[in-house]
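Protein Record: Sequence and Backbone Structure Tokens
======================================================
Tokens: labelled as protein backbone structure tokens, with as many entries as the chain has residues.
Task: work out the structure tokens from the sequence, keeping to the layout shown below.
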Amino acid sequence: MSQWNEQKQLARNWFESLRDQICTAFETIETEAGSDASFQYTPWDRTEEDGSPGGGGVQGLIKGKVFEKAGVNVSTVEGRFSEEFAKQINGAAEDPRFFATGISLVAHMANPHAPAVHMNTRFLITQKAWFGGGADLNPPLPRDEDTAEFHARMKTACDAHDPEYYAKYKKWADDYFYIPHRKVHRGVGGIFYDHLECDTEAAFERNFAFTQDVGKAFLDIFPQLVRRRMNEDFNEEDKRQQLIYRGRYAEFNLVYDRGTTFGLKTGGNVDAILMSLPPLAVWE
């Protein structure tokens, strides 16, 4: 893995820079709404089972007037997978050593007309190296206009790199963000990709550029949708539907989400991993 030192740092720097840009954008929206809410940052360290250091990260959390609860986390960790978990990870079956750096974001909104959202991008190294990630919109009360604009912006990011990316990664998101026991999708989709392998320096640069553009696309479109909906009137039934939807969201993240499993299986910070859960939800 030492041969990837430069690429590790480049990826880490980007994810931390994207975190800073997103947090600034969210705080600006809170200011526009007359709120002084800001992100609170909590660093955490990871320790391997033998007591050796295994990296760490920073949990960023805001609870405001517009963003009822939003988490923007970055982490850079390394160590060894457990023997059982290594068998499930690309390139780790014969050698459990790994490195992972990335950003993970979930925003739950105060106004039920404003869509919740999820975004994460990451760079992993085992005996292979690859990028993965995506972004998907999760409105409790879907609006066709918002859905169309979100998908259009993701398509633009994809088309700049490969005309086949959008259709492929949209389908992957549709398939992945599905709750089998409810027979419903978690939201209105987006894109999801994984195992963009970097077997050459050129492949790293190509896949890194795409991953950066996914982050930039999110930073461009999501604040627009928030500003459009954050001041709309809503009633008790709208809020009830939001809380019911949040229950479905929590079910997916706790039962099916790979990121939740990865974080818990690799000794990550529990509070940071479970920041994706909504502040309030109901089951009826």
